[in-house]
Amino acid sequence: MRTLIQNVQILTMKKGEKSFHGELLIENDRISAIGTNLPKTEAKANKIIDGKGMLAMPGLINAHQHTPMSLLKGFSDDCKLMEWLEHKMLPAEARMTPEDIYWGAKLAMAEMIKSGTTAFADMYVHMNEIAAAVQETGMRASLTRGLVFMQNDGGKRLTEALDLIDRWHGQADGRITTMFGPHAPYTCPPEPLAEIIKLASQKNLPIHIHLAETVEEVAKIKTKYNCSPTAYLHNLGLFTEAHTLLAHGVHLTHGDIQLLRGMKGGVAHNPVSNMKLGCGIAPVAALIDTSVTVGLGTDGSGSASTVDMFEGIKAAAWMQKMEAGDPSVFPAHQVLEMATAESAKLLRLDHETGTLEAGKKADLILVDMNKPHLQPVHHVESLLAYAVNGSDVDTTIVNGKLLMQGRKLLTIDEEELLHQAAIRARRIVDGI
Ligand SMILES: CSC[C@H]1O[C@@H](n2cnc3c(O)ncnc32)[C@H](O)[C@@H]1O
Ligand SMILES: [Zn+2]
């Protein structure tokens, strides 16, 4: 199958490359050619997409998500993280059936496809159902069985994590990869955490974990282990043993950031969730100055209310400009890079996605720029970072396959999805 997208403005997100008018040829799952006036592309194509008025860019990569929490959006807002988690989310999650997880995950995937996300990192439970939803929807995902060791059934959960890895790593035409997912320093004692780090190192698989999200977490770990959450993970060898995706990293001291220097992986910054839960402002500039990779995530819509990465892009830029008291920090190109190429590094997918290049996977979106709020186009990247909304995405392509065109979902029955989500969400929260 060869698809040609012609007559389109292209932003590759390759370092130092400006946007240009041209064409892009997709052969099966990969980009085979990209540029201006490519020779004989029309003759080679089975399908032609006219990109007039559109902007082609790499699909956005959501580096931290809990997809089934889409069923809990708006259920508990305006309260502190621990209260939100312990009194609202956990009781609701205890009522979710595997089928609820499947439909909740699919609901988040529909929202992601419709707002320009092509790949995401997920941490949750009942991962077979989430993997099945990924297989059907056509998205790319790095899946993690979240591991909480507060009760005695941690062993069973670890077995489930290993089962996810055995069954799904590399499946769905390679669109699914897996990680280990110890939930957070405050839910994972040293012994099981050390075991997980050893397993991740042996299997050469990454670890996805929440870190230093609240001041309460920092105080808890200090009381329990007499160190910071970051030092706790460092002392267990995490940052040298495994590629690590750290979600949040809000409360990091200068000393903590030094412990992250040279780590494989990096930090998923979740500005919307952090602001909405009143957690604080992550030291993104200091992390980047220390050569720590910082990608962008939304967190689940149970906290963030939305998994629209274009909202995250705006929030990240504005939050850092405000914090620095300097509008020149985090310019448009840099925040777009966080949501694409840098997030790809966190998912260990940068050899395949994150930029538009011949040879890479065809994971890309077309943004419809022919709208009042997106005209005139002085600087494409400024509009993408500060003016585009998720609903401006017209077309979403993953692994060379169209998942949405003209805003119509092509792999999901939207009507059935909305019906299932509504009845299930009502049942789950009823009486909590
Ligand atoms: C064991 S699966 C994942 C687990 O994480 C919970 N969760 C969702 N968002 C957050 C967050 O911001 N901080 C900590 N934990 C979070 C989710 O409810 C699941 O129980
Ligand atoms: Zn989270």
UniProtKB/TrEMBL annotation:
E.C. designation(s): 3.5.4.28, 3.5.4.31
Keyword Acyltransferase applies: no
Keywords of the record: Hydrolase, Metal-binding, Zinc
Sequence ranges assigned to domain Amidohydrolase-related in this UniProt record: 56-402
Catalytic reactions on record: S-methyl-5'-thioadenosine + H2O + H(+) = S-methyl-5'-thioinosine + NH4(+); S-adenosyl-L-homocysteine + H2O + H(+) = S-inosyl-L-homocysteine + NH4(+)
HAMAP family reported for this sequence: MTA_SAH_deamin
UniProt name for this protein: 5-methylthioadenosine/S-adenosylhomocysteine deaminase
Lineage: Bacteria, Bacillati, Bacillota, Bacilli, Bacillales
